[in-house]
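Q: I'm writing up a methods section and want to include an example of the input and output format. Could you take the sequence below and give the corresponding predicted structure tokens, formatted cleanly so I can copy it straight into the document?
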Amino acid sequence: MQNPARLKPFPQQEELLRRISEGDERAYALFFKHYYTLLKPFVLRFTRSVPDTEEVLQDIFLRVWLHRDKITDIAYIDAWVYKVASRECLSFLRKNLSDKDKLTDIKESQEFPDLPGASPLDTISLAEINRAISIVVENMPAQRRKIFRMSRDEGLKPAEIAESLSLSVSTVKNVLTTCLKEIRAYLVRAGFDFLLLLPLLLKNF
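A: Here is the clean output for your methods example:
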């Protein structure tokens, strides 16, 4: 297992973390690109499956983003990211442990596709993406839809939403995670690459 202490810090780490804590999605896209490359072989050791690896990576980066307000207080960011990753991997194993048939069918080695050099955001219509998101949001339960819109459209942080709706911050974060998972599932079915769109979808979360 890779030792987090041996990881190379990403460029201008302190400044990037500050920007991420303030909700800067461009800074988070750099963070995402750096840690995605480092984490994918780590996660693959647990899942032994390319599709499952992508699912777990998505959950990891969602968790990191939803806790961005605390990110500048973390002394060892690499160790913290790996701690989040380890928890998501263990959660994956717990959910799949009982499915013995699936586990025995997983191949020991699979090639993990490299990210293409060019960003797909250069060619994907943002209007089309937003329409797809709107379809999902309109079909959400009322409370979930309200929390999503307060976060994305009004730019409120989880703590602000929690205070406004008399909810706990953890409840709001869990709801936002559920929202993004629903959107992820819909976009994947529609043919979009969710991992590469993740920085865009996290805007204002």
